[in-house]
Design goal:
Helices cover 30% and strands 21% of the residues. The chain has 456 residues and is of the alpha/beta class. The strands form 2 sheets. Strands 1, 10, 11, 12, 13, 14, 15, 16 and 17 form a 9-stranded mixed sheet that branches. α6 links the parallel β4 and β5. The longest helix has 20 residues. The N terminus is likely disordered.
Length: 456
Amino acid sequence: MAVSTRPLPTLPVLPDAATEQVLAGGLLPELAYAFGGPFHFVLPDAFDTNLRAMQDALAAAGVDGFVYFAKKANKAALFVERAAAGGAGVDVASAAELREALGHGVRGEHLVVTGPAKDPALLHLAVQHGALIAVDALDELDALVTIALTGRIRSARVLLRVLPPAQPHSRFGLDEAEQATAMERCVQAGDAVRMEGFSFHLSGYALQPRADLAARLVELCLKARVHGLEASRISIGGGLPISYTDADSWHTFLAEQNSGHYHAGKTFHTGDFYPYYSPASGSDALAGLLATRPEGHELPLSSVLKDAGVTLLLEPGRALLHQAGATVFRIQGVKDRDGYQILTVDGTSLSLSEQWFNSEYLPDPILVSQDADGETGTFPASVGAATCLESDMLTWRKIPFPHRPRTGDLLVYPNTAGYQMDSNESPFHDLALPPKVVIDHTDRPRPRWRLDRHFT
């Protein structure tokens, strides 16, 4: 195959010293040999740094707040342990997730239980351990009252989840009439229910709508207090964006990419891509949110919260996992096409979840070549999975690699800890799920590693 001379769009990731240290340490080929298949590596220090930055943003704004790690973003036991050690809670949506969090050191009162139509076993466990429960429906509230009255252990701690007015067709949350009914039932329930406030989950990453709805929930808290309810907390869910790349690279990529840059002429709607660059990301996005003036208010959200004595709860997933891990595949086959190659790796696109949302995980994978002195140039290649499905592509885009990819080389997909690693993984074809390797002490010449306690 001839070296390509046609420019292809790229999307380089932001530099990360810890990931670069792992790549330079020579550990990855040994791990690939040991596991005989794809694997993920996770970086605990990155999680700790992200958590501290969010806690610092709350403190800098003078806002009383609490961070819950959205466990659905990554199943590694490591991150639950780091959340507990860092003074954070965990957001869970199943009895298994709740037990997992408790088993790895999270106190019951530091759990928030979300999700629709919760299983009775989950509700019983949540009440028993004093977890905060985001109530999504009136019958769920009734069930909690019954559990609390029957068990006579403690009150059910609840938030009432609000249907966002801007997303009236969402299947989650209580509309205005249901909110009023729910507050009445909380009053009638007496000590069986401790109504602590309201919550919402809002699609998208824009700060202004999130600030507007947060301020509306503060107003609901004030109204609920008139009826004798505690109503001292609001949860804004997750939705804090992170940046995988820089602004110029992202905007250039969007402007240049077209169907000719993808295997089989595949087309994507750019609106379906995750925003891989955001002007404010992670803790900076949180700071920006707190500084945003909600519609109808003269002061920023931070002042609205402080003036009302309302605590801000948030449930970030991806934003706590920024630069906290990567995914490694071995190339097990190379096939030439007209002007590019198709690489087949020893895993599936189920480990890069964007493909299953009619999108693409766009950050450029990194080629770790066995032959450091191999041929250099520009070698375009798309990346397919080791399954019999035509559509099972890890990367439809023709990546311009600087070395010729060969069988046995490794491909490292960077910054995959947030949702990419395992939200859709499946043992299709009886392929083993990739294990997770915890990389400790990346400041050493040779990083140390251990297996995460969970292999799924």
